[in-house]
Design goal:
This protein is α/β, with parallel strands linked by helices and 255 residues long. The chain is built from ten helices and ten strands. Helix 7 runs parallel beside helix 8.
């Protein structure tokens, strides 16, 4: 844990924003989910977003890749205003953003290699040898060098999570969006995945938003944290700052 703490303290966050969210609002009928969210994700930063169920965490990151359209506010991702992009521009931007779903969103009818090649299907300029290199590199980076011919059903939950990461990383994204990356995993595997996320941040120089209920994951990965309450930002700070907060509601997350 000491080495992880030192890593977090030494990591210098660039001042330029990778993502700027300003006054973001989203309702579903009479249910207001996001009620004026303003958040900055700095370059090469891991930002953990906490909040109770229904506080808008998953809706927030789905808005960032335009899976959900916000009602109001602005979303700037890698310098691009999402609201101004048409289909081609949005698809180009999405290739620069990796999204790890809770389930991993793997294709069970495809082998590990076929799952990894799937994101490259439209990359006409990448030849076969380069594709093979990218698959090998992605698997090595998540510690899965020996499973390329296996089916997802043959893998453990932790290995499936790693495979989901490898498939996302094969396009070398600049931003990673993690939706509950350690859900359903045992504590040892959760720690391994959390530490892998730090390795990805270092090796790929990613900027990441991490949605999680796992406070051990937050403690390992977070450069900074945001806590949402009733669709608004209730508190922000480092893990150490928020864990020692005098606000009883904020402190309850760390109990």
């Amino acid at each position: 844990m000491e080495a992880i703490t030192q890593h977090r303290e030494k990591n210098k966050v660039a001042s330029e924003a990778a993502i700027q969210i300003t006054d973001l609002k989203k309702s579903f009928g009479s249910n207001t989910v996001l009620n004026g969210i303003t958040i900055t994700l700095n370059k090469e930063e891991n930002l953990v977003v906490l909040g109770k169920s229904g506080s808008g965490k998953s809706v927030l990151i789905k808005c960032l890749v335009s899976l959900i359209k916000p009602d109001e506010g602005t979303l700037t991702v890698l310098g691009e205003d999402i609201s101004t992009l048409h289909t081609d521009g949005l698809n180009k931007l999405r290739k620069r953003v990796g999204f790890l779903f809770q389930s991993g969103a793997l294709y069970d009818s495809m082998t590990v290699t076929e799952n990894l090649l799937f994101p490259l299907r439209e990359s006409k300029d990448i030849d076969q040898s380069e594709r093979e290199h990218l698959v090998k590199e992605a698997l090595e980076n998540v510690g899965l060098s020996e499973v390329e011919h296996k089916m997802p059903s043959e893998l453990s939950g932790g290995m499936r999570k790693r495979l989901g990461l490898a498939r996302t990383l094969i396009l070398k994204p600049e931003i990673m969006l993690y939706d509950e990356p350690t859900t359903g995993l045992d504590p040892i595997t959760s720690k391994e995945i959390s530490e892998l996320m730090l390795t990805i941040q270092k090796n790929y120089k990613t900027s990441s938003i991490i949605i999680t209920h796992d406070m051990a994951c937050a403690a390992i990965t977070a450069n900074r944290m945001v806590i949402l309450k009733e669709g608004k930002v209730e508190a922000t700070g480092t893990y150490k700052e928020l864990s020692s907060s005098s606000d009883e509601w904020v402190h309850s997350f760390f109990s």
